[in-house]
Amino acid sequence: MSSSQQALEAAHLIDRLERLVRAGEQAGDLNPAQWEALRFLARANRFSRTPAFLADYLGSTRGTVSRTLASLEEKGYIVRTDSARDGRSVEFALTAAGEKALKTDPLLALAQDIERTTMAKAVREALRKALHNAVQRNGGRAFGVCRTCRHFEAQVSPGSRAPHRCGLLDERLSQADSDSICAEHEATAA
Amino acid sequence: MSSSQQALEAAHLIDRLERLVRAGEQAGDLNPAQWEALRFLARANRFSRTPAFLADYLGSTRGTVSRTLASLEEKGYIVRTDSARDGRSVEFALTAAGEKALKTDPLLALAQDIERTTMAKAVREALRKALHNAVQRNGGRAFGVCRTCRHFEAQVSPGSRAPHRCGLLDERLSQADSDSICAEHEATAA
DNA sequence: CTCAATTAATTGCCAGTAGCTATTATTCTG
DNA sequence: CAGAATAATAGCTACTGGCAATTAATTGAG
Question: CA A62, C1' C28: Å apart?
Answer without folding.
Answer: 21
